[in-house]
Every structure is written in structure tokens, then in C-alpha cells.
Amino acid sequence: MTTACPWDDWNHILKIDPDKELPEGVTYGDLCATGTDAIEVGGTMGITEENMEAVVEACAEHDVPLYQEPSNPEVVIDNRALEGYLIPTVFNAGSPFWITGAHKEWVRLDGDMDWDRTWTEAYIVMNPEADVATYTEADCDLDAEDVAAYAEVAERMFGQEIVYLEYSGMLGDEAIVQAASKATEESTLFYGGGIHDYDSAAKMATHADVIVVGDLAHDEGVEAVRETVEAARDA
Ligand SMILES: CC(C)=CCC/C(C)=C/CC/C(C)=C/CC/C(C)=C/COP(=O)(O)OP(=O)(O)O
Ligand SMILES: O=P(O)(O)OC[C@@H](O)CO
Ligand SMILES: [Mg+2]
Q: What domains are defined for the chain?
């Protein structure tokens, strides 16, 4: 048995990108009220402490667990409204900086880490067109066996509680998501990328433990996000 983690009971995460606008008439409060289990605040490009703070403050008064997902150590904010920090480590990154290097710098410069509120997410980045793939020079040329092996390594060799299959911007290959799911026993499998309606959410939620919905909130708004919450719960 592993110890209980907040995400054990989650089906759905809404990822809000502080560098992106909300559709006209939509507020952060509306997004918090979609029924999502948690909000992750993060994105790859254009992230600053200021835009992070602004989104966290706007969500703080609403009753949904809030996590920051920083893209580099400089944008980590100290805000008590956060339940904690979900820190990516990119298993298929082209440079060790995005696996452990940024983390080492963060810990070195911080000196007083809040470990009780800090967790990692073992990312496998799959969409070569996504900013996150360019940013981390990820090797996205992976088949189902490669992905399953990365997921098993993350769980068994590196003790990762979260394995995050990241297709940001595109809907993933169902067979690959299924392979990652089969390869993980204890870890919680997060899936994110291209979820845009009930059916796409339902498909990915069949295999993943938790689905992550990002751009849909910025592009379509609240009703579209609600549909994905419903699908995640039904799955
Ligand atoms: C050690 C600390 C504190 C930070 C480093 C954390 C690492 C390794 C970050 C690298 C991976 C990364 C950038 C994760 C951020 C979350 C993410 C994948 C957001 C989605 O990005 P995209 O959708 O590709 O980007 P945009 O939507 O911003 O274009
Ligand atoms: O923006 P989308 O494509 O929904 O991706 C969600 C999330 O996995 C991004 O990190
Ligand atoms: Mg994105």
C-alpha cells in the first residue's frame, strides 16, 4: 500500500494557463465551479510570478484545491492558497536540466523547501509540436512499448506517484494511453492533451486515472469544460 495522496480520488484536473486569456464573460470563479477536482496553474511559455499570482489569487476564494505547476524555478510563488506544488520532471527530455537539473537549482537557491506541499509528476511528452516538447527537447518518437517502459521505470525505479502522459494540444493515441495504464500499478496515471468534448474525455478517462483539460477552458469556456468533468466521472 502506498500512502493516500490527494489525487487518489480525482477524475479531472483543470489546467489554467496564466499566459492565456479567458473567453469573454468567463471568470476564474466560473472555472472553479465546473466540478473539476483540482486546478493546476501552469503553462510552458510566457509564465511569470506576476501572472501566476494573479490566477492563484483569482481562484483562491473558490472551493477547489489549487496547485501550482511551475515551468521553471523562477516562477514558483509562495501563496498559502495553494495546496501545493506539482513539479514536472520530464523523463524523455533531451537535456538532464529538465529531469533533475532545474530541480537541483531550485533546491540550492531556496534553502528552505516546503517538502510537505511538494510532489513530482513524471512527464512523458508526446506531441513534438507542443511548446513543452521544444522547451525540453523531448524525444517524442516513442511507441507504445517505449511509453509503457518509461511509465514502469517511473513507478518502479523512481518511485513516482504520478505518471503524466502529456499530449498537450493534440488528442493522444488510445493504444498508447492504454499501454501506459497497463504498465502502472501503484502510480496514478494523468493524461492530458486535446480533450475537447464528452467523447474525447470519456475515451481517455477509460484508460487514465485522471484526465487533464487545458486549452478548452481558454478556447471554449465553462460548458465545454463541464462536459469533460461529467465524462471523467462517468468513466
Ligand atoms: C524545478 C522546477 C520548480 C521547475 C522545473 C519543472 C520542469 C522540469 C518543467 C518542464 C516541463 C514543463 C514546461 C511543464 C509545464 C507544464 C506544461 C507541460 C504545460 C503545457 O504546456 P504547453 O501546452 O505545451 O504550452 P503552452 O500552452 O504554454 O504553449
Ligand atoms: O491544453 P490541452 O491540449 O488540453 O492539454 C492539457 C495539458 O496536458 C497541458 O499540459
Ligand atoms: Mg497548452
A: 9-234 (3.20.20.390)
